[in-house]
Write the structure tokens for this entry.
Amino acid sequence: MASNVSITPWEAEAFVDYDKLIKVFGTKPLTDEDLKLVESIVGEVHFMLRRKVFYSHRDFDEFLRRYARGERVALYTGRGPSSHTHLGHILPWIFTKWLQDKLGLELFFQLTDDEKFWHEHRYKLEETNSMAYENALDIIALGFDPKKTHLIIDSEDIRYLYPIAIRVARKITVSTNKAVFGFTDSTNIGMMFYPSLQIAVCFLPSELYGEPTMVLIPAGIDQDPYWRIARDIAPSLGYPKPAQIHNKLLPGLGVGGKMSSSKPETAIYTVDDIETAKRKIMKAYTGGQPTAELQRKLGGNPDSCPVFKMMEMLLVEDDAFVRKHYERCRSGQILCGECKTIVAELVAKFLEEHKRRREQARDLLPRFLLRNKFDPPPIKR
Ligand code: TYM
């Protein structure tokens, strides 16, 4: 499945055929009906939904209906701490925070220092573990509610996950693992076991609350392979199937490819100083023409421009501003240099505020750790 398309959790392009992914992964496109449902329940529609940055789902509508009926539901998302946080990671978290604010939901946030240690051989475990704490500062800086947001650091909080993962692991064969994730005989057995840990969190709220609790997972479409397995096995383990809402991937600032830690020059990190961030944007690949003259004559192509996408997918809520900018680019009224300067300023503004909040986050961290708030679920149920 995932092995023969250009998206897996570890390898993903940005300008892929997202409609095709819906077919290959067997998800549903987010429709105008779904947006009406959001409007009727939440009272507004986030710009990432309006612009179809979040564009595909499974049971998002069912999740909202359960919420509206007063049933217990929760949010789940995560991060593999292989590097500092970049703006691509922040994208689904901004939307997740909106859902938490609007619906008052608890959020389980997994930091997979084990996954990144198993997957990326250049790291020591203490490095991925300390990066989990660095990434946690970014999560906190976004303003999640400490009472309702529970961080799980795999290597330290395994006792919360293990009783569930044991049951999950028995349901996943090596052949499923190979087909879904593209694992081979030379994949280490840590990675082979890892999916049971990412899946375990789907069921953790049901265990902690002692009642069936559907989770909604806002995350990039690259994480979908896990949820396919999770949904297959949920009924036989007595849990509700997890719902998903999938975002498209913010492109990196180079040619093609998602914003990714494997290409640091094309990613903007929250720890980049403002000048570095601006410089990366000023050097970015764009959808522009080779010369200013051609650009004025033919116009640029914002649809394949990572600089425009940063504005459209992440930084600017105002639809009229984005639409106008799009049209000015298309018609050649704005050149790439001017556009880059605008986006560089937007990024600088975002980073300044984020950095300030990130520093304050250190003191808040203990209030976010799951282990400080819940006992591990009992094995018997
Ligand atoms: P990771 O660390 O690769 O990614 C964290 C989240 O960021 C999303 N993402 C992006 N979104 C938009 N544009 C991009 N360029 C971009 N790059 C990454 C990912 O889709 C993800 O939502 N195995 C996971 C960790 C994890 C997890 C989870 C993620 C554990 N449980 C539950 C999501 C939901 C990982 O390595 O994510």
The chain has two domains: 18-253, 264-361. The chain is about 50% helix and 10% strand.
